[in-house]
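Researcher: If only I could read backbone structure tokens as easily as an amino acid sequence. Walk me, if you will, through where the backbone shape changes along the chain. I have put the entry right below:
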Amino acid sequence: MTETLHIVGGGMAGSEAAWQAARAGLRVVIHEMRPKIGTFAHHTGHLAEMVCSNSFRSDDDEQNAVGLLHWEMRRAGGLIMEMADRHRLPAGGALAVDRDAFAVAVTEKLKSHANIDVQGTEIDHIPREGHWIIATGPLTSGALAQAIRAETGADQLAFFDAIAPIVHADTIDLSAAWRQSRYDKGETEDELTAYINCPMDRDTYEAFIDALLAAEKTEFHEGETAQYFDGCLPIEVMAERGRETLRHGPMKPVGLTNPHAPDVKPWAVVQLRRDNALGTLYNIVGFQTKMKYGAQAAVFRMIPGLQNAGFARLGGIHRNTFINSPTLLDHELRLKSRPNLRFAGQITGVEGYVESAAMGLLAGRFALAEIAGRAVPPVPPTTAMGALVSHITGGADAKTFQPMNVNFGLFPPVDLKGGRRNRPARYKAYTDRAKADWAAWLETTAAPLPA
């Protein structure tokens, strides 16, 4: 093949799109502006850098839509899942990774591929010719974002995404905290003890909420509006919704027993999850925040076990950008006004590492088939991939479009009654149907590229 696929952005989506196309024989150029031009959230020039969390969430492919998406990506030979599995950390039923080792591995795999050229260039305009995928993620550069707005005629949509802090493990007081995965999930000792738990009694929790609400917060720039994505709310925003919100959310005390006081049920529990293979870093689960740095250290050290915590990284907040995909993209993720251009990843309005990579996987395969002159059938909406792409390219209401994680509510219903009691059987029916339909779809798109 003499054609070249250009991909703008080397995050989860861009990396996966490049891999899917290149491994089938297509020449690919990845245009990644980092590290020459940095962003607020990134700290390296590695491809597929994880900036918010080190978790790909649930790996249960029978009862969870995210786990099903993992399964589908693995079945399609996905690079992101291969490297995640290779650099997996104990996390109970979740798939968490050593974020630095993961990004290095993805980068090395792509840069060493004979069909891939990684260029440290910023694309600041809409390309008029050639085959392109824009996978610039939520931190699209200002120049390119302006070019996209000019091309689409649509206002930029934005929400604010917050980053959780990371703590040095040797500064956590294990005489107050303990290691245990919620509901004792996991088969190995590492998995059973993948989380560090910091308990609070009622008075400590109430004092923590008071301090959280009173802490100095990062101000927004004039003209900005805080349209938070509900799956990644800053903890202080959750607290503002009600004093009990956190203890029914990231601080819920269920499924845990404190070995220091087994007969005392904690009022709330703060969990920390391992962030690297060495076990020297832990991130505070669900503790995204927009508190100022000085306030963060003071408030978080009120947590039992973290009174002497040393922070490898404090939390932060940044603006995320996404397009109104239901009005702008067709079912193959092409921009309707300029079909040589596809979008993939979070900029399309999916939320999460896995969802972003999944849209990259599809964009890479769609582009590959188009260049090869092959028609590709629509992705079955009964699959996790199909449910997501159907949602963002027409299933969602364009007037109220907001970022979305994969969930069974996006799938066509299964004919199974029984209500909440029958939920496990219903979820299993969703995943069984999806696996069969995804395997069949992959078979229809498996023809090799012509020479």
Notes: The mean pLDDT is 90.
